[in-house]
Amino acid sequence: MITFDILTIFPDLLASPFNEGILRRARQDGHIDIHTTNIRDFALDKHSMTDDRPFGGGEGMVMKPEPLAAAVEQVRNHRGAGKVILMSPQGTMFTQELAEKLAEEEHLILVCGRYEGVDERFRATYVDEEISIGDYILTGGELAAMVVIDAVTRLVPGVLGCSDSADKDTFSRNLLKHPQYTRPRVWNEMEVPDELLSGNHEVIEKMRFLESVRRTLARRPDLLKLETFSDSEKKLLRRHGLYAAVKSLQADSNSTV
Q: What is the pLDDT of residue 109?
């Protein structure tokens, strides 16, 4: 089980998403535990101020170190030590690989930054890692924290209905996932590919692999520069005229087809 503690000045913002769908079921089944802590509860003045103007001047406000530190300490006192993560646009880019590493932790403390950021002294003293979910700016770290929790939760054993769903996701390899189809067999004059109806699992897997490569070539060729292929996959790529395109992408990188 993983325990998530979220430190925020807007705890109500997080209530609904964690009570829906897979996250709700994961909580009910005991795979994850989620707590929110209101940073304002640890403010030192009667107005519950958690931010102040930056020394040296400049735009915006900065989150004060005392309430943040006190909130972390209370969480540690109640639920033990955990990895403290600051949601920040300056952090390490969040990827599937990073989600997999975080899924190995037992306790994650997610600090939701606001305004122009947090006091550097808090970051230097308490923060183990900073994470960004993309090169853009949000009004706060709450939405980013929800993204991290959602991505990590689905990797916890027992959370997903199909045990190998996560292993075959987009980004489980450096390939986008193949196209998917369901009933009806014909819709809008478009038919489901015959291979998927054949019942031959080897044929289906080869078709899906090829479609993954084609989709990645079209949409995210940068990913293919990092991918490696087995000998049988190379033969399949050659047979279907994809090998040369993949090889040319990897020619200038350290990876080899």
A: 98
Binding residues: 113, 133-138
Say how many Å lie between the first and final Cα of the chain, rounded: 38
Q: Which of 25, 27, 154, 215 is catalytic?
A: 154
d(CA 77, CA 71): 10
Number of domains forming the structure of the chain: 2
Same domain (yes/no): 7, 82? yes
Q: How confident is the model at residue 253 (pLDDT cuts 50, 70, 90)?
A: low
Active site residue 169: yes
pLDDT for 172 equals 73
Q: Show which of 153, 177, 194 is a domain's final residue.
A: 153
Q: Which of 33, 41, 66, 116 is catalytic?
A: 116
Residue 110 buriedness (CB in 10 A; 0-12 / 13-18 / 19+): buried
Could you report the per-residue pLDDT of 85-136, keeping only the tens digit for each?
999 999 999 999 999 999 999 999 999 999 999 999 999 999 999 999 999 9
Binding site for S-adenosyl-L-methionine: residue ranges? 113, 133-138
Q: Which helix (H) or strand (E) holds 250?
A: helix 243-250
Secondary element (H or E) of residue 29: none
**Domain co-membership, 27 together with 114:** yes
In the residue annotation, 89 being an active-site residue is answered as yes
Does the pLDDT value for residue 230 go beyond 90?
Answer: yes
- Domain membership of residue 44 (yes or no) is yes
110 or 46: which carries more pLDDT confidence?
Answer: 110
Parent domain of 233: 186-250
Is 183 one of the catalytic residues? no
Active-site residue flag, 33: no
Residue 55 lies in a domain: yes
Structure token pair of residue 206: 């080869």
